[in-house]
Design brief:
Number of strands: 2
Structural class: mainly alpha
Distance between the termini: 45 Å
Helix content: 55-70%
Mean pLDDT: 90
Radius of gyration: 17 Å
Order of helices and strands: HHEEH
Length: 106
């Protein structure tokens, strides 16, 4: 399985986790997309620097070849799925651990 397919599956899994499994609906919130814009900016700076200088390389047959700021598009997909999954779990656990007044239960 190529990196492209794994990245696409990661995005699909993250979307399902957010909207169906945990029902945190982060992807429907403007605040998520604002925060994600900040994250993706720094991801592109870091990833672009690493890939442009050859610190990180990819087998041409494992990726589509489309790049954005030197980073393969698969890296953006993979990074998106990591951010969504992390934040979805964070919100879900926060809801479960908060008491009736919004503070953590003992």
């Amino acid at each position: 399985m190529t990196y492209t397919w794994l990245a696409v599956l990661g995005v699909l899994g993250a979307v399902l986790l957010d909207l169906v499994v945990l029902r945190t609906a982060l992807l429907r919130r403007r605040v998520f997309w604002t925060a994600y814009a900040i994250v993706v900016f720094f991801q592109l700076v870091t990833n672009g620097w690493l890939t442009a200088r050859g610190v990180v390389t990819y087998a041409p047959e494992a990726i589509l070849g489309w790049r954005f700021c030197y980073a393969p598009v698969e890296d953006l997909l993979f990074g998106f799925s990591l951010v969504v999954q992390t934040l979805a779990w964070w919100v879900w656990w926060g809801r479960r651990l908060s008491g009736p007044c919004g503070s953590a239960s003992p």
